[in-house]
Prior knowledge:
single chain; mainly alpha; 3 helices; elongated
Amino acid sequence: xxxxxxxxxxxxxxxxxxxxxxxxxxxxxxxxxxxxxxxxxxxxxxxxxxxxxxxxxxxxxxxxxxxxxxxxxxxxxxxxxxxxxxxxxxxxxxxxxxxx
Length: 100
């Protein structure tokens, strides 16, 4: 009888340890993923304007105009992410800028 109890305990332990963990968080919506991707693209465009200015490809006025063109959409995307509950610390990591 003890071996049956021991077998049940071993089986329960094996199931507890080996059973795949279930993600109980809500799955991310397609809109949230799309907005995050769009925010990443817009932030990359802003970095490109800065890099192009630093490399002499565009003038300061062109940089300002480009940033002004991107800013409203970036603001809209950021506000929509916040309304969906995106935490402020979930911003994408900044890419390393090449040193010249």
